[in-house]
What we know:
The protein is α/β, with parallel strands linked by helices. It has one domain: Ribonuclease Inhibitor (Leucine-rich repeat, LRR (right-handed beta-alpha superhelix), Alpha-Beta Horseshoe). Helix content is 19%, strand content 19%. It has three helices and twelve strands; from the N terminus they run ααββββββαββββββ. The strands form three sheets. It has an eight-stranded mixed sheet with strand order 1-2-4-6-7-8-10-12, with no helix packed on it. A hairpin with a 6-residue loop joins strand 1 and strand 2. The structure holds 2-acetamido-2-deoxy-beta-D-glucopyranose (6 copies). The site of one 2-acetamido-2-deoxy-beta-D-glucopyranose has 4 residues, from loops.
Amino acid sequence: MEYLQHLRMRSLWVVVVVVMLAVENGCNGCLEKERIGLLQLKDSINFPNGTSLPSWDQEDDGIDCCHWEGVECNSTTRQVIKLELAGKRYTDGEWHLNASILLPFESLRSLDLSKNGLGSIVGNEEFNGLNNLKELYLRGNAIFSISALNGIEILSNLTNLEKLDLSENNLGNGILPSLNKLSNLKFLLLAWNNFNGSIYVKEFDGLNNLKELNLSYNEIVSINALNGMELKLFKCLHNEI
Ligand SMILES: *[C@@H]1O[C@H](CO)[C@@H](O)[C@H](O)[C@H]1NC(C)=O
Ligand SMILES: *[C@@H]1O[C@H](CO)[C@@H](O)[C@H](O)[C@H]1NC(C)=O
Ligand SMILES: *[C@@H]1O[C@H](CO)[C@@H](O)[C@H](O)[C@H]1NC(C)=O
Ligand SMILES: *[C@@H]1O[C@H](CO)[C@@H](O)[C@H](O)[C@H]1NC(C)=O
Ligand SMILES: *[C@@H]1O[C@H](CO)[C@@H](O)[C@H](O)[C@H]1NC(C)=O
Ligand SMILES: CC(=O)N[C@H]1CO[C@H](CO)[C@@H](O)[C@@H]1O
């Protein structure tokens, strides 16, 4: 009798353990829509025939995408909060990213797509989703104009952005007034962008929270201060001033 009871208890424990394992797997995985989004992003970054991000594996459903290379999730919500994908495009040709691929990542706070031959971002309406984005790194790509960012709409919608790194692209002076809508920006990095001639501080007067503006390695000849904006913000080394 006692033995039977013991057995029953044991099988009960087995059941409990199995159920706990199942629940844990279900809860600790990443969100399905974000996993699918990551696989689409992998296809896009590898197009037409790259081979990067091998750990982002479609076949192995047991692997939690929160553990994939370059992906960081919130440990409570399991939502993707950071994507660190600098230098991941190992294939020839410019990368043209359709912004709608980023839509599933509603809690994304930091996105690094530096050094990926990114030539343009298309599909501007669809960029509205990234409301939580605070840091965007697009350094060292092939972006050569505002139009390559689908007008500036694509950036100006990112109103919570605090850090924007567009260094080492070829943007030119035309982009400056358009950045003015990003009123929460604290750090704006614009080195190596073929800015030339005179820059008017007025062009930055919407950036009330700016702490640092790096305009190094351009061909700026003069900076015209207006509105009492403090010039100490500017890091203008290696210009012709
Ligand atoms: C990759 O794709 C390009 C363009 O489609 C092609 O020219 C090249 O040969 C391909 N390379 C490999 C290794 O398949
Ligand atoms: C994770 O998400 C919870 C709930 O939204 C939030 O309170 C917490 O601050 C987040 N943690 C991190 C590290 O973002
Ligand atoms: C971006 O992707 C969406 C969804 O797949 C598609 O409807 C849209 O036409 C694409 N936009 C561009 C400019 O390719
Ligand atoms: C600035 O660069 C643009 C584009 O490269 C060029 O057309 C323009 O003449 C340059 N302006 C000055 C003042 O050098
Ligand atoms: C400004 O940016 C350039 C290029 O990225 C970098 O080398 C330099 O250290 C930066 N300057 C400051 C003062 O942060
Ligand atoms: C939140 C926000 O500002 N959304 C705007 C993003 O851009 C589109 C089109 O450019 C606007 O229609 C939205 O109002």
